[in-house]
Each structure stands twice: as C-alpha cells, then as structure tokens.
Amino acid sequence: MVDASSIYLAVTGVLLFVALGAGLHVLRGIVREGRDLRRRRRAGEAETYPEDEEYDPGPPAGPEDEYGRTTDPSDSGDPDAPTATCPQCGADNESGFDYCRRCAAPLGPAT
C-alpha cells in the first residue's frame, strides 16, 4: 500500500523538476538575449549605453498634465534648493548627497 508521505515526496519531486525546467528555459532566454545584444553592439547596430529616460525625458508634455492641471515642466520642487554639480558627468544633484545620482561618482567633501 502507498502511504501519504511517499505520494507527497513524489509530487514534490515532480514539481521541483518542473520548476527547474522552467527556470532553465528562462535563463537560456536571458543568455541568448544577452549574446544577441552583445553581437549587435559590436556590429554597431545597437547603442552601447542607451540614454535613461529618467535623465533624458524628451520634450515637455505641455502646460497641462493628464489630469488637466497647469504644470511648469521646469519646476522640480523648491527653486531655492541648493544643488551640487557632478564633476564627472555634469548632472545636477540635490545638496546633501555624497554621490552622483547618474554616475555614482563622489561629489566631493561634505560642506
């Protein structure tokens, strides 16, 4: 007679093999995509480092946001807040940070 513990072990083993197979399938796809991207970069078909939309959002959306409120795209909060410019990439960073938000370079000694 088959007891419950052996059924449990068999079902658990089968589920583990299914999960392992699915995980290997996903990892194979990631590796394949990485190799394809590397090949396209070497051939000049893809950008080496594409711009991040957070730092290059493109043109402003307009005077109204999606809710109809009037907005000023150049307004990023407190206009009197001091900023620190990164010596390496030139990005503006809020004061009080030790490292650049874009390239993670040190911003210099704390003032």
UniProtKB/TrEMBL annotation:
Region (Disordered): 36-88
Transmembrane segment boundaries: 6-31
Keywords linked to the UniProt accession: Membrane, Transmembrane, Transmembrane helix
InterPro entries: DUF7577 (IPR055999)
One Pfam family of this chain: DUF7577
DUF7577 domain residues: 83-107
The protein, known as: Zinc ribbon domain-containing protein
Organism (species): Halorubrum rutilum
